[in-house]
Amino acid sequence: MWPPDPDADPEPEPAGRPGAGPAAAASAGLRALLPSRAFLRSRKGCLLLTESGLSFLVFVCYVASSAPAFLMAPLLEFLLALFFLFADAKQLNDKWQGLCWPMMDFLRCVTAALIYFTISITAVTKYSDGASKAAGVFGFFATIVFAIDFYLIFNEVAKFLKQGDSAEEAPEGRDKAEEENSDSDSD
Description:
Number of strands: 0
Mean pLDDT: 79
Shape: flat
Largest sheet: none
Distance between the termini: 53 Å
Order of helices and strands: HHHHHHH
Strand content: under 5%
Low-confidence stretches: none
Structural class: mainly alpha
Radius of gyration: 24 Å
């Protein structure tokens, strides 16, 4: 989430039982890769899971349809949604601060919404098989989910920038008022 929460403590990793053997260690290792339940139940986690699921569903529908030209867009959006799911869950935005994570996520959602809207209209109107129609309908649902996500990201970034602007304006306003008072006192 933006801005990063400085008080967020990662969940403690479940330790394998002593003497449980290599199967428990492998299971604990695999669990470390998965996002936590708390993140998956958060608004951002639910949105990213829904985006990933719908993108995969649209991809599968296009595989079975007579519109193979549209395979690449849902596949790329699926992979990008998975990347952002794990990046947000593992708090990579705190570790890699050189990247502008909110802008990348915003651009990903905007382009995904536009691409899904375009290919869904084309799939529904141009192709007559059921798989293309299903891919188009699921693509419209994906468009709505991506649009909701970029709207929420935009609101969070705008709120963050407004807080920064109000903090910067307060000292400047005070300095200008002091200058005006000193000018009027010197007269």
